[in-house]
Amino acid sequence: MRRSLLRALLPLVLVAADRGADIRGYITDRPIVYVDPIELPLFEGGTIGGRMRVRLALQASDSNGALRLYQQRPEARSVLLVALIDFDRAECGPLAPINAERMSGVLNRAIQRTGLSDARQVLILEVTSEPV
Fold first, then answer.
1. Consecutive H or E run containing 75
2. Which helix (H) or strand (E) holds 40?
3. Alpha-carbon distance 72 to 115, whole Å?
4. What is the pLDDT of residues 59-77, one digit of tens each?
């Protein structure tokens, strides 16, 4: 219960960190920084045939890395968005299942190439797709 409470409060704690509060003692041993959800169109035959929603998080190497990642969220989200667009074009369709394992590899390679060294790995929290 204690760990789930910490996970639930982590976004609030990271907001406090953004405002200059010292919160290193409140972050768990595996700090996670949540990325704003991403929604992409799924194309089929030149038209939009569906949409895909993805919720992601970045696992930081340590609490100091989590603070730096929190401040770099817009850059990280942009990198993840570009990687998902490329993955979407090559791998996804409105009625086809999404290969989350392959998506994970694509996202993790994209983050590693950008130099966000504090990101240990990209976590896929949720992936949904639906036809339009």
1. helix 73-91
2. strand 38-44
3. 11
4. 998 888 999 999 999 999 9
